[in-house]
Structure formats: C-alpha cells, structure tokens
C-alpha cells in the first residue's frame, strides 16, 4: 500500500483491498504515462468524488477511459539469492504427440530404474562422495534477489519493466518475446521501485474461485466436468512454468480468478521463485558440512580445504599433533589435500623438512610434456625402478658382488637434494656435497632434465615454492620451466594441480605403499622390486635418519568420483537409440533436482562430469536416461530393439565389488594402525542443504499445493469454517486438508481420489493398493521412489498423458481441444491489447481509426476461423454430453458478443454448436445475441467504415451476410420453425422491403445495411466475394467450403488485408 501511494501517487480512495487482492481504479492515460520517462501525475475522475470512487461504481458509470487493474506488490529483501534453474526448450505443445501405450511403458520402466538407482546411490555411496558434496554444497547465493525477480518477470511474462522512484519514471526496459501462458492473469507491465516490485494486471475476471465455491457453489457442484476442467488448466499452467524453470508458488483459491466461460486466470506468487539464503542458513549449512571429530584438537577443516590448500605454500609441520588413523581417514574422505597428507606422512616417518639427509619427499607425477598433466608417471613403481630399469635392479638384488641384495638404495639421497636446490645454495656447499669442482654445466638446466636424470623422488618445493627456480649464481642460469608455463608461479600452480588431480589421487595409495608402507619389506617388496638397502643391511650403527616403514597393510584408496558409481544409472539400451536421441533432442534441458524425477522433466548433468568424460559411453547414457526423447521411440526403434540381443554389456574396467573392497581395506588398515576395532570418527552428512534440494523441495511443494487445491475445490463445503488457515502457513493448510480427508474421505468424488491419494500421500483408496497412511511430520516430505500405482513420483507432465487419465484424473478427450480454444482466445486478446497500445488516437485520428479497424477485422476473422477448426475436432469427441456443451457454449457466446467478430461467429460457429445443443437450448443460448445483430447491425454497417475500408473486407462483416439464404435455413432448422417465424420474419421483411429504421440516438434517418436492395453487389463481386440475395434460388448456396486460418496472426496484416472469400459461391 505504501509503495502504491508514495511511488505511484495513487490516492487511497482509488485503492480497494478484497481478500488480500489489491484493485486500483485508474484512467487509461495514467497507465500510458507510466511508460514515458518523466514525472507521474495521477488523473482524478472529473465527475465522481473520491468517496464515490471508493464505493466501486460500475465501469459504465466511470466512463470508457477508466479501467480497474489488479496489483501485486513484492517487497525487496536486498539479500543474496540462489540463481534460477535453467529451463528446458519448450516446443509447440499443440503439435507434440502424446505417448503411445508402448512409449508410456518404456517411460515408466526407464524412470523407475533411474529413480531406484539414484535412491541406492544416495543411501549407500553418496555419503562417501565428499567431492560431489563439495560441488553441490559450494554453490553460493551470489545473485541479488532484485536480479532474480527481474529474471522471473522476464521468464514468466516477458513484460516491460518500468523503474520509478519518488513519483518519477527513471527508465522503461522493453520486454522480451516470451509468451505468457494463457492461464496467467494478463500483465500490463511491471514496476520496480527502490523498495519493491509492483505488477499491474488487467482485470479480465471479477471473481475468484474462492468466492465461487463460497457464494455460488452450485456453479461447480452441478457436475464434475467443470471442476475437472479447472484442474486441467492448472496442470497445463504448472507444466509450462516447470519447463521454464519456475514455480507457481503457494497459491490459494483466492489467487485463481474465474471467468464466466470457466477459464481461470492465476495470480502467481512470484516471490516463491526467489530462494533467499539467510545468514543463519549459511552458517547452518557451513556447520553441517564441516568434518566433525571427536576429541580432535587444534585442527578442523571443511571440504573446501581441497581447493584452498592447493593454492597455499603448505605447512611443513602439518599433522604432527594428530594420529595417523585420523589423518588417513581425512585423506580418504577428501577432507585434506594430497600435499598435506604426504607432508603428514613425512613427518610421521621422521623426515625433517630442510634436512638434506632426510628431507620430505613427494612423487614425480608427470614428465611435464603437457600443461594439463598427461604422460602420467606409473605410481605402482618407484622412481628408482623407472629410472634404472628392472634388469639393473635384478642385478643389484641377486648379484654376489654386493654385500646385501637390494633394489633401492635411497628414496632421496643427500646429493640429489642439493642438485634439486642448486640454484639456492652457495657454491661452497655444492662443492662440498655434490662435486668438488664447480662446473655449472654439470647441473641439469631444466625441470624436465632434472626429472629424467634423477632416480630419486621429488621434493615439496617443486609444488609450493617458485623461488627454487631462481638462481643466486651468475654463471648458473635459472632452472628452466616447460615451454607451456608462463612463469615459475604458473608452473607451480599447474604442477600442484597435477598432484591433486583425480588420476593421481586414484593411484597415490600405491606410491604410499612403496615409500611408507607394506611394500618396503617382505615378499611385497621383492615382488615390487622395492627392497630398500637401509632396511635390509642390518646396520648396527646409530643414526638419526633413514627410510621408515609406517604401515604393514595395504593403504586404502582415496575416494574419488567414479563414472560407474554416480547418481545417474548406466545405459542398458542399444547405442542406436542414443544416436537418434542426440539428433532429435539437441538442446532440450530442464532443471536438475535432488528429488526423484517424474521422467518428463529432463535433468541437466553436472558440468564437471560433462567436461571430463564426454567421450565415455556412460556419459552419453546419462543423456539418454534424462531425456524425454528417449521415451519417444519410433516403430523402427522398437523393431530394431526386438531384433537385437538384450545382453547387458559392462565396461572392462568396471568392478561391481569395488565399493565393498574399499570398505574392507579401510577397516583392515585402520584396525592394524590403531590396534583397535575401527569406528569412523567422521560424520557424513547425507542431508546437506544445497541448491538442488531447494529446487526439488519447491517442486514437491507444488504437487502438494495442487493436491490441496483439488480437495478444496471438490470438498469446498468442508472448508468454509477453516479456509483462513491457508493465510497462516502452508503446513497449517496441508494439515487441515489431511484432517478433512481423514474424516470425509467418502465425500471426495471417486474421479479425483487416486490423484489426491498420490499427491498428498493419504490412504483414501482401497487397501489393495497398499498405500501407506502419511501424516504431517516435521521431516521434509518426499514422494516414494515408486508410487503405489507403480508410477514415478507425480508431476504435471504425468497427469496430462491421456493414457493415464483413467488411473489418475479422468479428463475427457475434448479437454485438449477446448483448451486449445482457450489458448487461442487469449493469444488473440493479447494481439488486440498490443494493437490498442501501439496505435494511439492522438497522432492522426482518421488514419488511426482506419488502421486499427483493418487490423481488428483481420484478427477477428482469423480468430473465428481458427476456433471453427478446433470446434470441429472438439464436437466430434463431445457428442451430446451436457456438461461438455456447458463448457463450450460460453466461449462461443463470448466471441458472438464481440463487435468485430459477431457476424463471423454467427456465420461459422452457430451451426455446429446449435446442432449439438438442439432447438430448445439453442434458442435459450443464442437467440438474444443473434436478434441483437439483426436489430442493431454490426459495426461495419456504419457508413464511415464502408467508406474507408475495401469493399471485400466490408462485405465479410456486414449484417447483410446474415440475410443469406443458407444462414436463414440454418436458423430455421436449428431454432425451430415456430421460433424462426416469431423472431426473424419481421427483420427479414424490413430488409427486403427497404424499411427505414430510425437509429436511436441519431437525429437523421439512415439506411441500414440490412436493406438488401441498397447493397452495391457489383463492387463486392469485383473484390472476389459474391454475396447472394436471400431470394436467390441457386442450389449451390446450400453448400459450404470453409477455408480456415491456421492460427493467430503474428505477421504484418497490411500485405494481405483483402483476401478472396470463397465460403459462399454465387
């Protein structure tokens, strides 16, 4: 209210609030002025006082330039929000075929398989996958709620956005080409102020569905067909918005406006698309995702350590105060980096950072030929073995020339240490430990040469310190870096990334076994050619350095994302189906969520998986399993599938027991290390709050809201005392619905019981379905993986599949065609609104009137012919069903009462509808409207229109057409001879006799176009359209050839304003 008064300068008396809806009474010129940059000046009524305006007079009393508009205000929170979900490509639904029975079965099988796999993954493997947790939970709310709301407005309406501050229009941002759904309340434009967003909607409907069920319950209670059509329209709207990545929000019956023709117009809750992450939630999420330890002193890290530590210099004392089992567990679960864990192992083994005799060691992981890794080092073999070769190692192990047989002399010798850091040590030190004489050329010139020359392992400095490449000697140049590196700092960054890569992480435990583990002794050391001299020489001299074996059991592998252990199931179908899908469904996507998929909404793949494994056939199978296109197989595909073998082919490197093996390895290793039964001290949070779960919860809530709406419509008499609960909270509203169903389940019509049981998960169906009773609990609501009907979780896409109508909602077949009519009428109404907005009368009144009339005529002609085409399909399904005709007739009446389409509607639409209604109902329904046409004529009967428009256009819209013998015969048959003689003989005689009617309100007598003798037929015929006299006995007049327009006109009509009308041949 304050925003409307302060920023829009609307007086309080011009504002009315009813049941939470704000309605303004405003002048059309004031609305137009809001789209012009400059100060705002509200226009007060020149005749009525503010108190009279507050009494809500009729629009006729206000004047033709006054209208009423609905207003919705959304306050800004000025906080960061989660980005919107990316929508999927929306195809033309009227041309999109429905699923066949075989395709539906395939959809059920594929989707249930996908959901069951996902459920098992989340239960058994997802808690281990800390890397995926990091990717999912690390999505930050870094977009302002203002930007999100602007995007929501563009996606939902595509309207103009007017920025206003303190009564001044600052800017007008044009809208986009997005077409709003026909069941959304049409929007004029949106306004953004400093504190809120305001949407202005045209008042196309005066009453809400809440008012209908409370004050006029008989309108819907007479038959279930009308109520079901309301639900059908809601489902169409839900499906469209979900495909756009939006939700309708917590709407109630008060937000659904009902028109006389049973078309609904919904005011959505736009703010429910803005997911604000409050500071308390951010802290809670961070706390939930921390790795919590029992009795863990001094070190607590989150999974973000992986990325943060990778860019740090590293701490040489890392892990010195912690036990090896805790550090190992943290590494296994991706809580600390490879670099940090290796540092901790070096410290555990007594190696001292900076001590040449026992400096820290790290593995060489690549030969530096590529910037992004590649040519990876074999971590199952020591660097000594790779450098010297197996033959030489066998000689030193078996040869009698050496005192003790061994394979490896040292992991990192003192000489190698000084060579590595030769650029940073003085010449005197180097001459003492490396070579007595100073010969700079004897030192490797580049890091590649150093790698190839050295039989020892790497040092931490090459992963953390770029200064080691810079020489302090004048005659010894800097250590060269690979050609792909731009600087030492760049090389250090890429080298560190290689150490932390998935490839190295997956195999690093082998290197640990060679350097610190069980492969340093026993048969494992002999087999790996890793017998170390310092461990087998039986020396008795005291020393403070050397190789130390920390473990006697195989070290567990680090958990990394696996292409075979992921949320998306592997492909179990032939590859040719995939190729067809890729060609036909390119670009189709939908929002991803953490809940179960209904199968019709395609879920997008994580970008990281797509980028790293594009060549994998498994990744392609994910596209197949997510795509609705995979459900739409052609007959050729089905035949080919039958002819091919159904053998499940597994990849060669797939190990189905890898997870079990890993668990066993971890437990055996930890039991040996800690000398006690291993019990995990890491808390894995399966229920982390993340972006995808927020989106999924919004979708689930949408289905619950739909269930509540259905119950409130069909059991409206049970909610009259409790309907205000919906204003308190949705949980209260849901509880009222469930309690009502528990007591009055038998009162709910059978036609919606299955749908309500599915949406709200309540037991109101026969026990044979084994549906579990679900009560409202504090825990997050989730649909079962496979519902009690054997279907995937419910969705609007699923409810709108015709084959499932009998199991879910018994929608009649004609609903589809009736909805097409509703959609077309809204599209044409949108065209008329745009035309009225673009053509302004103050520019050139004559030209404006002529242009506007020509366009309105063509729009009306196309609209009527398109409706006639859909009406033909619709009536073929309807037959003589009473409730069906009650839904159809109001739309035809609406078109027949519009001035520009009245004559055309009578000509094209009257007969097919009257044929279905019968004489009695036809007379009650259409007699008054047709009599008005005969008595008052059409707008084209005006001589002004006849003078400025081509005669071909004039002839189509004149009342003369209704005096045609063919139409008069239809009136006689459809209304009955008695009614025809009572009502139509007089206007017919007057027309034939040239009777001069006095036009009420005019001071002169004028000839009406009903006077057939005064009609100039010659010009009309020259224009290509023949208008026959009612006295013409040509038998060809009894036959019709209706040429229908394909749909709404969106191109320039001025190129084709005069078309040949062959509907009547003379």
From TrEMBL:
<dbReference type="GO" id="GO:0035973">
    <property type="term" value="P:aggrephagy"/>
</dbReference>
<keyword id="KW-0808">Transferase</keyword>
<dbReference type="GO" id="GO:0016301">
    <property type="term" value="F:kinase activity"/>
</dbReference>
<dbReference type="GO" id="GO:0035014">
    <property type="term" value="F:phosphatidylinositol 3-kinase regulator activity"/>
</dbReference>
<dbReference type="Pfam" id="PF02138">
    <property type="entry name" value="Beach"/>
</dbReference>
<dbReference type="GO" id="GO:0005739">
    <property type="term" value="C:mitochondrion"/>
</dbReference>
<dbReference type="InterPro" id="IPR000409">
    <property type="entry name" value="BEACH_dom"/>
</dbReference>
<dbReference type="InterPro" id="IPR036372">
    <property type="entry name" value="BEACH_dom_sf"/>
</dbReference>
<dbReference type="InterPro" id="IPR052651">
    <property type="entry name" value="WDR81"/>
</dbReference>
<feature type="domain" description="BEACH">
    <location>
        <begin position="316"/>
        <end position="584"/>
    </location>
</feature>
<protein>
    <submittedName>
        <fullName>Putative inactive serine/threonine-protein kinase lvsG</fullName>
    </submittedName>
</protein>
<keyword id="KW-0418">Kinase</keyword>
């Amino acid at each position: 209210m304050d925003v409307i008064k302060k920023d829009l300068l609307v007086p309080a008396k011009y504002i009315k609030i009813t049941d939470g809806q704000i309605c303004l009474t405003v002048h059309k010129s004031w609305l137009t002025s809001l789209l012009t940059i400059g100060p705002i000046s509200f226009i007060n009524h020149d005749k009525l006082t503010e108190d009279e305006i507050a009494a809500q007079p009729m629009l006729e009393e206000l004047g033709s330039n006054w209208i009423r508009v609905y207003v919705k205000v959304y306050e800004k929170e000025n906080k960061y929000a989660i980005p919107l979900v990316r929508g999927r490509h929306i195809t033309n639904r009227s041309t999109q075929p429905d699923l066949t029975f075989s395709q539906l079965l395939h959809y059920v099988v594929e989707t249930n398989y996908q959901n069951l796999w996902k459920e098992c993954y989340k239960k058994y493997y997802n808690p281990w996958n800390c890397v995926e947790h990091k990717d999912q939970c690390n999505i930050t709310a870094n977009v302002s709620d203002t930007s999100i709301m602007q995007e929501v407005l563009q996606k939902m309406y595509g309207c103009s956005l007017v920025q206003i501050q303190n009564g001044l229009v600052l800017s007008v941002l044009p809208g986009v080409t997005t077409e709003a759904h026909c069941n959304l309340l049409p929007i004029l434009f949106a306004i953004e102020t400093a504190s809120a967003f305001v949407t202005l909607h045209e008042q196309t409907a005066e009453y809400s569905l809440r008012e209908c069920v409370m004050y006029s319950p008989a309108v819907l209670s007479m038959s279930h067909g009308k109520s079901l059509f309301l639900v059908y329209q809601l489902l169409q709207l839900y499906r469209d918005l979900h495909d756009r990545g939006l939700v309708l929000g917590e709407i109630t019956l008060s937000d659904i406006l009902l028109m006389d023709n049973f078309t609904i117009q919904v005011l959505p809750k736009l703010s429910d698309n803005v997911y604000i992450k409050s500071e308390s939630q951010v802290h809670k999420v961070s706390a939930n995702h921390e790795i919590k330890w029992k009795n863990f002193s001094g070190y607590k890290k989150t999974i973000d350590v992986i990325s943060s530590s990778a860019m740090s210099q590293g701490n040489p004392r890392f892990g010195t105060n912690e036990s090896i089992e805790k550090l190992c567990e943290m590494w296994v679960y991706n809580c600390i980096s490879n670099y940090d864990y290796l540092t901790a192992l070096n410290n555990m083994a007594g190696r001292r950072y900076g001590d040449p005799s026992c400096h820290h060691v790290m593995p060489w992981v690549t030969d530096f030929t590529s910037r992004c890794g590649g040519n990876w080092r074999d971590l199952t073999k020591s660097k000594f073995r790779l450098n010297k070769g197996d033959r030489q190692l066998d000689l030193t192990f078996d040869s009698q020339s050496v005192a003790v047989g061994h394979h490896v002399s040292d992991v990192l010798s003192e000489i190698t240490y000084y060579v590595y850091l030769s650029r940073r040590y003085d010449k005197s030190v180097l001459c003492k430990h490396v070579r007595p004489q100073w010969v700079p050329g004897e030192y490797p010139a580049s890091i590649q040469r150093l790698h190839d020359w050295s039989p020892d392992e790497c040092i931490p400095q090459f992963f953390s310190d770029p200064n080691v490449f810079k020489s302090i000697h004048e005659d010894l140049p800097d250590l060269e870096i690979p050609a792909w590196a731009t600087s030492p700092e760049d090389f250090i960054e890429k080298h560190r990334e290689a150490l932390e890569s998935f490839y190295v992480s997956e195999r690093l435990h082998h290197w640990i076994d060679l350097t610190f583990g069980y492969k340093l002794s026993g048969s494992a050391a002999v087999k790996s050619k890793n017998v170390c001299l310092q461990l087998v020489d039986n020396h008795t001299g005291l020393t403070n350095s050397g190789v130390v074996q920390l473990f006697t059991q195989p070290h567990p592998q680090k958990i990394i994302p696996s292409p075979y252990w992921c949320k998306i199931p592997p492909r179990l179908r032939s590859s040719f189906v995939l190729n067809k899908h890729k060609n036909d469904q390119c670009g189709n996507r939908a929002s991803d969520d953490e809940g179960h998929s209904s199968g019709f909404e395609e879920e997008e793949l994580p970008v990281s998986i797509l980028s790293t494994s594009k060549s994998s056939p498994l990744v392609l199978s994910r596209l197949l399993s997510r795509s609705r296109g995979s459900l739409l197989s052609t007959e050729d595909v089905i035949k080919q599938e039958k002819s091919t073998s159904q053998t499940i082919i597994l990849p060669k490197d797939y190990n189905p027991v890898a997870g079990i093996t890993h668990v066993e390895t971890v437990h055996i290793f930890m039991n040996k290390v800690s000398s006690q039964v291993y019990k995990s001290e890491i808390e894995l949070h399966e229920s982390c709050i993340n972006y995808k779960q927020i989106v999924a919860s919004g979708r689930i809530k949408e289905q619950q809201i739909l269930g509540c709406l259905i119950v409130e419509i069909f059991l409206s008499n049970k909610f009259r005392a409790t309907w205000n609960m919906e204003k308190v909270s949705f949980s209260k509203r849901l509880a009222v619905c469930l309690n009502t169903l528990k007591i009055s389940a038998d009162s709910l019509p059978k036609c919606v019981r299955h749908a309500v049981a599915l949406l709200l998960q309540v037991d109101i169906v026969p026990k044979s379905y084994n549906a579990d009773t679900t009560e409202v609990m504090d825990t997050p609501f989730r649909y079962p993986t496979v519902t009690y009907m054997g279907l995937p979780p419910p969705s609007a896409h699923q409810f709108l599949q015709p084959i499932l109508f009998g199991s879910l909602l018994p929608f009649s077949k004609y609903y589809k065609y009736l909805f097409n009519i509703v959609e077309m009428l809204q599209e044409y109404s949108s065209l008329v609104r745009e035309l009225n907005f673009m053509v302004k009368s103050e520019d050139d009144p004559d030209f404006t009137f002529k242009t506007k009339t020509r366009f309105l005529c063509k729009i009306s002609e196309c609209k009527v012919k398109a409706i006639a085409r859909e009406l033909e399909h619709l009536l073929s399904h309807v037959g003589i069903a009473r409730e069906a005709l009650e839904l159809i007739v109001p739309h035809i009446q609406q078109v027949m009462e519009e001035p520009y389409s009245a004559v055309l509607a009578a000509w094209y639409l009257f007969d097919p509808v009257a044929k279905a209604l019968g004489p009695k109902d036809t007379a009650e329904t259409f007699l008054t409207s047709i009599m008005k046409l005969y008595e008052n004529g059409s707008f084209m009967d005006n001589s002004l229109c006849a003078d400025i428009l081509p005669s071909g256009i004039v002839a189509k819209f004149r009342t003369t057409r209704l005096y045609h013998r063919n139409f008069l015969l239809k009136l006689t048959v459809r209304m009955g001879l008695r009614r025809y003689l009572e009502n139509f003989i007089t206007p017919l005689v007057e027309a034939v006799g040239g009777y001069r009617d006095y036009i009420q309100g005019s001071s002169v007598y004028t000839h009406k176009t009903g006077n057939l003798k005064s009609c100039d037929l010659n010009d009309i015929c020259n224009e290509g359209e023949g208008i026959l006299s009612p006295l013409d006995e040509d038998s060809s007049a009894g036959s019709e050839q209706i040429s229908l327009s394909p749909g709404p006109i969106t191109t320039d009509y001025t190129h084709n304003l005069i078309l040949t009308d062959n509907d009547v041949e003379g």
